[in-house]
Specification:
The chain is mainly α. Helices cover 80% and strands 0% of the residues. It has 15 helices and no strands.
Length: 369
């Protein structure tokens, strides 16, 4: 006897409206609670990433609280050690900022005063059109009357620098809180996991699905962070070698910064290329040379970051690149720089949940490759 086909559930307009309002309310709450949610999400992802190491120490009879503390301390030491290695180059680069700003200002003034460049042509055309319009209405052309120079507008550079410094300190504070959250999660071991499973419901099927989701989340986050680590190290080493080959000063500094900034998908490549291009212009003094170095950095970063990373991520998590890119744009709008960094693992986790919950299978298929 053939089984009757399962009836397809249709959504009513009222139900759709309720779902849309719930989604919008969730987004608004996530935007308003950024200061709370970002450190928590950072801590959870750090805990997922470092869990295999802590588990390995536990197999050697090291208590989980001690193992978690040691692992997080080693991560902190590695980060501080990398900062110490590039400290001298960074101090020298910062000391040259005033002279660099002067060179950029002089170059911009010289370019603006040259009448044969496109900007000079546009200004000359605008002046001629203004003269023609005044002659057409019968008013004499204005003579060049010397006027007092307008008061210089207040510089926005100091305000911008102060704002970015505040954001950097805020990011460090979020990272510190996230490490504390990761410490507690790693120390707790499977205790928190068992509590989550107990909340799934009394039925064995619901708990089994919850366990599968948690296991897949472990794999997805660990794969993503492993791919991120490998590609960032490759980007940093490749840019270091490239800049050293073309004779750039402080190639190690720029390679390290490229590896760090490349953590931010897509935007990291643009930031690195622009920064290296400016440094090359200040060192070599020609726009062509600087543009060539910046283009080489962009091509190299794109080949590794977009090509290799997309291929590895597709193999590791079977994600749709378009969905990942849209997710990065959304979380970047939602949480700024932290959103760009956390967006990809959050999308991977969302796909894992959608694949395991029948009502959300359509969204999982959309996010999949």
């Amino acid at each position: 006897m053939e089984q009757a086909p399962r009836p397809i559930r249709t959504w009513r307009a009222g139900e759709i409206a309720v779902v849309v309002l719930a989604v919008l309310a969730t987004i608004a709450a996530a935007k308003a609670a950024q200061a709370f949610l970002v450190p928590v999400v950072v801590g959870i992802i750090l805990a997922y990433a470092l869990k295999p190491i802590v588990n390995g120490l536990e197999n050697y009879k090291v208590p989980r609280p001690i193992g978690a503390t040691v692992v997080l301390a080693l991560v902190t030491v590695l980060v501080l050690g990398a900062g110490i290695l590039i400290k001298e180059d960074a101090k020298a680069a910062l000391a040259e900022l005033p002279d660099a700003a002067r060179k950029v200002r002089v170059a911009a003034q010289e370019t603006g005063h040259k009448s044969e460049n496109p900007l000079g042509h546009v200004r000359a055309a605008a002046a001629e059109l203004d003269r023609a319009a005044k002659e057409a209405v019968g008013s004499p052309p204005a003579e060049a009357v010397p006027r007092a120079a307008p008061a210089a507008p207040p510089s926005e550079l100091n305000a911008w620098a102060s704002e970015q410094s505040g954001k950097a300190l805020g990011a460090l504070g979020d990272l510190a809180i996230g490490m504390m959250v990761a410490l507690f999660l790693l120390s707790a071991g499977d205790t928190f996991r068992r509590k989550v499973v107990s909340l799934a419901g009394p039925t064995l099927a619901a708990r089994r699905v919850t366990v599968e989701i948690l296991d897949e989340m472990d794999k997805q986050v660990q794969r993503y962070l492993l791919v991120l680590l490998v590609t960032n190290l490759l980007v940093g080493a490749a840019i270091w070698a490239l800049l050293a080959a073309v004779g750039m000063e402080r190639a190690a500094l720029w390679g390290t910064l490229a590896a760090i900034v490349h953590v931010i998908p897509y935007a990291g490549t643009a930031i690195t290329s622009a920064a290296v291009g400016i440094a090359a212009f200040l060192q070599f003094g020609t726009v062509g040379h600087a543009a060539g170095v910046a283009l080489a950095v962009m091509v190299l970063s794109s080949a590794i970051g977009l090509g290799l990373t997309s291929w590895l991520q597709g193999k590791a998590s079977h994600m749709n690149p378009v969905a990942v890119f849209v997710g990065l744009l959304f979380f970047g709008w939602l949480w700024g720089g932290w959103g760009l960094l956390l967006g990809a693992p959050i999308v991977a986790i969302a796909k894992t949940v959608c694949d395991r919950v029948p009502a959300l299978n359509a969204f999982g298929a959309f996010l999949g490759s």
